Amino acid sequence: MHNQANALSHLRVLDLSQRLAGSYCTKLMAGFGAETIKVEPPGGEPMRHCPPFVEGQPGTERSLPFLWFNTGKKSVVLDLSAAEGKAQLQDWVRQVDVLVEDGLLQDLDLNLAQLNPQLIVTSISNFGQSGPYRDYQAEEITLYAMSGLMYGTGDPHQAPLAGGPAIAHLSAGMKAYIATLMADYRREITGEGDRIEVSIQEAAMDNIEIAIAEYLHLGKVAKRSNDEHALVPWRTFPCKDGHAAIMGGPIRHWLKGAEIFESPELVGPQYAHMEGRIRYREEVRQLMAPWLLQHGKQEIFHAGQARKLAWGYLATLQEVLESPQLQARQFFLDTEHPELGKYPMVGAPFRPSKTPWQQVRAPLLGENTFTAAQPRQRPQTSAAVRPQPLQGIRIVDFTHDWAGPHATRLLADYGAQTIKIEYPPRLDGMRGAYLDRKNRHPRWWQMNRNKASITLDLHQPEQVEAAKELIRQSDIVVDNSRPGVMAGWGLGYEVLKELRPDIILVSMSAFGATGPESQYAGYGGCIEALSGLQGLTAYSRQGDAMRVREMDVTNGIMGACAAMTALIYRQQTGEGQWVDLSQREACTWLMGEHLLEFILNGTQTLPIGNRHPVYNQGCYRALGEDRWLVLTLRSDEEWQRFCQVCGHPEWSDDSRFQSRRDRHQHHDELDLLIESWTSTQTAQAAMQQLQAARLAAGMVQDVSTLAQDEHLQQRQWFQTAIAEGGTYPGFPFRFAKGGGILHRRGPDLGADNQAILCDLLGKPASFLPALDDEYLGTAFDLE
């Protein structure tokens, strides 16, 4: 029987993963109730031996990454190098619902479909199961570079910069979770298992969907810009005691908010519109600076938010822990460990009203046994052919900007009919700033592809009623407004439940529905700073913190995780629920192990640029303008192989580089030596030579090289919109049973008014707005 308190308690999961992405996926599954069994070799999985350790002492129970990424799981020990171990695994496969792995199955030669026809197998790999890069070696920096993310991070006058958090692996882990639940949803209908393929590179590329789409349609190559943003102001600025995140938005509130700087010129006509502030970027900064340098960052944060501006500050880990908002929402939950005692740890990534997060410690090595239990058999049905896993699901999409639309775009890509509600007098900013181009922006086409567009003015009672009629016939509602906005329109959760008792509402506000800062505004720039995450990325310990800028997307991915979790629960129980997702908390979730290190060791993780705490690693100049190669050397033997590849075997005899410790001590000199070779090679040629020697090397791709990448071409990753044509970014994961279809690009404004409002809801033609220039005249008034 399904445990009403757990969304995924009907699932039994075998976790064979040994890297971050797979462990992140199964951490989510365990936290929402799935019985998750981690299979470890006799000495413990590799992550148990991964630093940093509690109190600096190695030990299988003291690895901080293991303690974070494996909460809620069971640990069983199995020697898969022995015949009896392999036989035991085959028996276990017959008894589970889901298997998650990241390469271990390649050497085991198991016929999983024969062992368990209803099994869902989620396979995570660096570059996918096919293509020229299939067997490439990779670390996080390799994947960050080859997915195109690294090219946009850092200073344009320096090398591209690796992100502090493991964005590539974490993105892939969340995508694997979404895909597994989609497969489970379809299996409940068809009775068939599935095989899911997650390429970490392709999952990470979803984070730069805008940059890829704009290159494919406009030829635009986005470059590194330090911490600058196209809009002004929109970055962190020095203040009295650190850095404040000053966002000039919502743009309609800027003029009133700008009065805080006590500079009359700043609110004058020259800077009244965004166009002027962009043109005179440096002058705006100089006018703001005197006031900022006289005030503290937390004072600035609250003062800006009081004026309805999305301001924040660059938070330390201590400030994250002490946040009144996070404390009020009990974001940190106590965890009891038999060796380490009681300590707080980051809690839920989102908060379903009926299926709360289960905060359980990571397991001791081998403390559990695998108990026999046959999985529930699902009868095969005549609905066995379902080309899309979410076929038949309808979503009403009230989201705007990026995080919310990305969440609903993921669901739309895999079959959910997603209807975007637009209010013409204040259109989504992603439609751009010019009335005559409202339907012509590639970023809009990409982020809202596979969706329908209808226009409703929710200030008008009859149009609110139309929204209610649509919700009665829908399954999921998603919004990312401030708490209270939906209720103000008469569309709060209590009303939605009356319209349809099993409705799912996913609310993706900036700070969450409760707490003293719940009404605060937030964009990715302030959320990344407030989460503490921005402080992890810099060229050195003393360097300026740099944004990685993927937070809107990762928050969107977590929004899709939330929707799928609630949908699975409804499928099992018939009950809907409300999910409260704080984007600040979802962002903070990406650095759970770093907060745990601070809690248990009192250590603030410091940025180390492109280097690695254990291996020898860097980003090196290659031939050509702004072309770069990343390289990770993980052992003495790999260092020797590198010396052979580059034609300098004598380097391996240099006393400065004899051991990994020696190379760390002389890392600056090592970097110069490596770059003396890479600078004579194209990044692609160097990568191919080094990968042929089984070394983790990768070129730092930009969107132009991604568009021509032979691996992505062979894997047919890029997609063509069926309705209008045009090339777009591909899908983040693949199903053997089918899923992921690009029907149409982001819709023209009100393109589906007739089909939805008239044909589906039965409204007369007179109900439809004219959408003429007079009605739309204020839609792009940026002030």
Summarize the SSE layout with pairings:
Blueprint lengths: L11 E4 L4 H12 L3 E6 L23 H6 L4 E4 L5 H11 L4 E4 L10 H4 L4 E6 L14 H7 L20 H24 L3 E6 H6 L3 H10 L15 E6 L2 E6 L6 H4 L16 H6 L1 H12 L4 H10 L5 E2 L3 H5 L2 H5 L3 E6 L3 E6 L4 E2 L41 E4 L5 H11 L3 E6 L19 H6 L3 E5 L5 H12 L3 E4 L5 H4 L4 H7 L4 E4 L16 H7 L20 H23 L3 E4 L2 H6 L3 H10 L14 E6 L6 E6 L2 H10 L14 H6 L1 H12 L4 H10 L3 E4 L3 H5 L2 H5 L4 E2 L6 E2 L5 E2 L17 H8 L12 H4 L7
Parallel strand pairs: 1-2, 1-4, 2-3, 4-5, 5-6, 13-14, 13-16, 14-15, 16-17, 17-18
Antiparallel strand pairs: 6-24, 7-8, 8-9, 10-11, 12-18, 19-20, 20-21, 22-23
Describe the structure.
The chain has 783 residues and is α/β, with parallel strands linked by helices. It has 31 helices and 24 strands. It has a seven-stranded mixed sheet with strand order 3-2-1-4-5-6-24. A seven-stranded mixed sheet has the order 12-18-17-16-13-14-15, with helices on both faces. A hairpin with a 6-residue loop joins strand 19 (616-621) and strand 20. Mean pLDDT is 94; it is low at 779-783.
